[in-house]
Amino acid sequence: MNFLxxxxxxxxxxxxxxxxxxxxRSKLLFILYFIILVFMADEKWxxxxxxxxxxxAIFTSRISLAYLLNxxxxxxxxxxxxxxxxxxxxxxxxxxxxxxxxxxxxxGLNMAILTTIRLVLLVIIASLLTxxxxxxxxxxxxxxxxxxxxxxxxxAHELAMxxxxxxxxxxxxxxxxxxxxxxxxxxxxxxxxxxxVKKVKSMIPLLIPLFISAFRRAEELALAMESxxxxxxxxxxxxxxxxxxxxxxxxxxxxxxxxxIFIFLKR
Length: 267
Known about the structure:
- It is a single chain.
- The chain is mainly alpha-helical.
- It has 11 helices and 2 strands; from the N terminus they run αααααββαααααα.
- Strand 1 and strand 2 form a beta hairpin.
């Protein structure tokens, strides 16, 4: 069960790399922009560009590629399910493989490969955001981006706080789940053998203590915030204000360059 502690989303790795030094607002905006590019990619050249840029982002962040790939374990079942759906339902092109009732077409094989690449890239880029951005900076970045909407009554600070707490609680709840699973295994529980129905039923003893622990942590957090005088965004000041730097300008240039390349290849 050690894979639960290796999920990178929600964790933060301190560092001084180029990606770490970026303003959280620029990282958030660029990730949204990059997600659009990933979904716009529809051929090998455009996919090659987004893959190369993802590798460049990993290299400049100084985050281990093995650690990021290890964090993909929880979504492999989604990837496998998606691949099976495309291989069995998507038709078009030449027949690649035939066995009894199963016929795999070239179009289905291509879609399975491209969809797998797309899912992996999205998870890796989302993981890089939390791995290279502290929860406090991420909260400030989200709040600053939504700040113009506050004049229409939009709760920018409260939304940013909720999203930050949710991201921060991901590794905490995963660690709690691992502890509960080890405790249940020491009492004779079996989470590995049996069919899917049996495995799902074996997870029921985990849910009740996990929910109780989550509610207890939420109550403790609320009491801690109230005892420190937290009253939302009203009257709050910040010790460190966010500011754009040269690194953010370089990221903006890269975004424009990617857009130009995509437009050129689309034509």
